[in-house]
Design brief:
Layout (H helix, E strand, L loop, with lengths): L1 H25 L1 E10 L4 E5 L4 H10 L5 E5 L4 E5 L6 E13 L3 H11 L5 H17 L8 H13 L3 H14 L4 H18 L8 H17 L4 H16 L4 H14 L3 H14 L3 E7 L6 E6 L25
Helix pairs in contact: 4-6, 4-8, 5-6, 6-7, 7-8, 7-9, 8-9, 9-10, 10-11
Length: about 325
């Protein structure tokens, strides 16, 4: 009976494993192109391999969008994006599509942002698009080399070196959410460190880098915790632009995804200093109809908006003012 139960358990485990493989395979579609090259966008080269291994390497790497296998050299080129095809005898290429697609993920993330984000999204995308020109990596440097160099610089407390490498890595492949988040973390930490210095205060520029990196990380995030971290970084970067309404709303969105006592305390402080509040008031108690003049930190809504909710007098008689 023990052996029978073991065999049944093994059979069930095999079926579960096959189901998992099928579910994972259903999320990735590969379109093969024979005798075809997809020029450009190489981020990794695998030598002494075969077509099946090349295909699997791309499918298993979430930042891979295409590959080309050269049967003459047995080299595999993993690519972060696709390009126009080029005829190449002996080469087999593949375009890899994943579900959800980046466009679907971006649309879902944009819908979560608690303010009109188009300007910041456009800036983030322009930042990413410009990196191959503004931050071109050294020749023959691979994506993995740059990520490793950036992480080493962080470990050695060399933020300037980390920022350089973290900017160069997405110049090769911009698909990795984690690299964008790391760039945001390092840039914003450096901005905080240099803010207020008599010389060398480039905190605003660093915060701009951090804001764009955080937005790029957020637009590529699917997991709840990743989205919360990216939103926190986005709000932190916007503080340097004094976008206080957006900052407060974005911190709240981050907390809704992942509660944090430390972040809540910071949000409370931001609200106390920059939230909607009374900045001054004058009381005229001697007139026949006593009145108070109140100055708010932000303009009140205009038009037909009911403003009675902005001033509430506790225990006032019904109909009183």
């Amino acid at each position: 009976m023990g052996k029978l139960r073991a065999l049944r358990w093994l059979g069930a485990a095999v079926l579960m494993g096959l189901s998992l493989v099928s579910a994972q395979a259903a999320d990735v579609k590969v379109t093969l192109l024979e005798n075809t090259d997809l020029p450009g966008f190489d981020y990794s080269i695998i030598k002494d391999t075969d077509l099946d291994a090349c295909r699997s390497a791309c499918v298993d790497d979430n930042i891979c969008r295409a590959f080309t296998f050269n049967a003459q050299s047995n080299w595999c080129f993993l690519k972060g994006d696709t390009s126009e095809t080029a005829e190449f005898a002996g080469a087999t290429s593949g375009r890899v599509s994943r579900a959800p697609s980046l466009s679907v993920t971006e649309a879902a993330r944009q819908a979560e942002l608690p303010f009109p984000p188009q300007d910041l999204i456009s800036q983030a995308k322009s930042f990413a698009t410009a990196l191959p020109s503004t931050d071109a990596p050294p020749p023959k440097t691979t994506y993995a080399d740059l990520v490793a160099a950036a992480e080493q610089a962080v470990a050695e407390e060399n933020p300037a070196g980390a920022i350089v490498a973290f900017r160069q890595a997405p110049a090769i492949n911009a698909n990795d959410r984690a690299v964008w988040q790391s760039l945001a973390d390092v840039a914003l930490a450096r901005a905080k460190a240099v803010a207020g210095q008599a010389e060398g205060d480039n905190s605003y520029d660093l915060a701009s880098t951090g804001t764009s990196a955080a937005m790029n990380a957020f637009l590529r995030s699917t997991e709840r915790d990743d989205r919360a971290v990216a939103l926190k970084s986005l709000a932190e970067g916007m503080e340097y632009r004094e976008m206080w309404r957006e900052v407060i709303a974005t911190y709240r969105a981050s907390l809704a995804l992942a509660p944090s006592k430390q972040l809540q305390a910071h949000l409370d402080d931001v609200i106390a200093q920059h939230g909607f509040r009374i900045t001054s008031h004058e009381v005229d108690a001697e007139s026949a109809s006593p009145r108070i003049c109140v100055l708010f930190s932000d303009p009140l809504p205009s038009g037909s908006t009911d403003l009675s909710g902005y001033v509430v007098v506790p225990n006032a008689a019904a109909g009183g003012h």
